[in-house]
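[User] At your convenience, examine this fold.
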Amino acid sequence: MSYVVLARKWRPQRFEDIVGQGHVTRVLRNAIAAGRIAHAYLFTGVRGVGKTTAARILAKALNCEKRSTPDPCGECTSCTEIRGGNSIDVYEIDGASNRGIDEVRQIIENSRYQPAKSRFKIYIIDEVHQITRDAFNALLKTLEEPPPFVKFILATTEPHRLPETILSRCQRFDFRRILTREIVQRLGEIAQKESLRITDGALLLVAREAEGSMRDAQSLLEQILSYAAPGAGTEESRPAIDERLVEDVLGVTERRVLYDLSGAVIQGDANKCVELIAQVVNQGRDVTRLSRELVEHFRNLLVARLAKEQRRQGDEGEAAPGLFAQLLDLPDQEIKDLRQQAADLSADALLDYFRFMAEGDEEVARSSYPRFALEAALIRLATLPGTLPVDQLLERLEALEKKLSGQGSQIPLPPPEQRRVYPESASEVAPSKSSAEDDEEGIWQKFVVFVMKEKKVLASHLERSRPLEIAPGQLKIGVEEKFHLSSLQDPENLSLLKGFAQRFFSREVAVAVVPISSRNERDQGEAGSPANTVRSGKTEGNDVVVEEALRIFGGSVKQVKRAD
């Protein structure tokens, strides 16, 4: 007899043997027991979670000759033929290779005839989303009102590709990803029945790599068993398959490396991060996979921290293990390790780690040099500045506000009677500066420095400007150059400037940005420049055109030529 792989050898034959899909099997068993059997079922879910297996068990249960319980007996002729795939009344059709309208018409034609010897004629169509739209349209009438002896069971991994008219005619069951704990338990049962010695840690690694697919987990276990073929000797004398062997075969990173890397990040040790990455690369591990595992690890740390805070707020005591089992599909020992590593970190810090690691993982996936991209991401994480909880920051701000209000050390502003208005013309400026002007110049410079810390681009425009008026609740800024004027008058920048002024002066401030004439234009105006000559000329119509051009394009008149 030829060898049968584990995924086929240990395929479930009863509803209760299907792992992780109790919400589906319970409904199907109750429907069979009550006789409320639909004419069409749709099974959806990711690969390897039991869709086709459940369809076969349902077909056996509907056509079982004994029919004593909702589960098939597995011994009658009908159950045996369906299990072997040679039943003449149960058709398993591949939607990818039978996707045309001609194949669907053949199904419609055959569905008119009574089953040969079974109770129902059952059509199981795998990958049904591959069928063309015209074929779906041809199937609509038969799918909605089939003969009473015909049942359809459709299975797909992409239900969104099915027409709404098909979805509305079926009872839909969504198969979930299987939990890691359930996969480990099922693999342990298979290993025991196969007389295989494998550690729980090795089974856990296999279950992790399966990503919720039981078929993938069994295929990986098959690969490991082929690599570690037992030699001569008794079962007890053979070495057990451990984590190290699984890591070598599957090329996965040791879980301890994730904790070492996250510990180095938390301690701010960038050198250790780079050294650990070098060790992983020298061992031949997949750097891209390591990056994805780090994203998941920081997510698990964040969830562990949040669950701990929720337990503390709710005072649930020993209810935490159940809560962790819902949020983290991990063994108890690893949950304990996560809690210890996240104990001294705030949720904000862990959220920053997760966000930056997720961004770094995207860079690793796109980069031609994933190792260097991962090193850069970890160095960035290790050098992040420490974060404080929001409540502590608010307490510090409140303490600072009380201290400033108690000492009267707010930024000094001149009283209204001493306020100074800067002239818009240089000729009005007094030759000597008063003490009030010196104070206001100092306030203006401090304000520019304050804006520089918040937004450098906006401060660069303020440096080329000067204050025309500084008074309580009033700030008037004069700008000579058109470029800086348009930038400061931009609604977004003006709104930012008002916000900075309000924070700087600790009160509501009305900010106005106005144009002023440049020094060159004022000098030329005083000395009788060509511009003034034009403005004082006899041709008044040309003066209006020149002034409008100067207003639109800026600049000044350098030379005037008059026609003879």
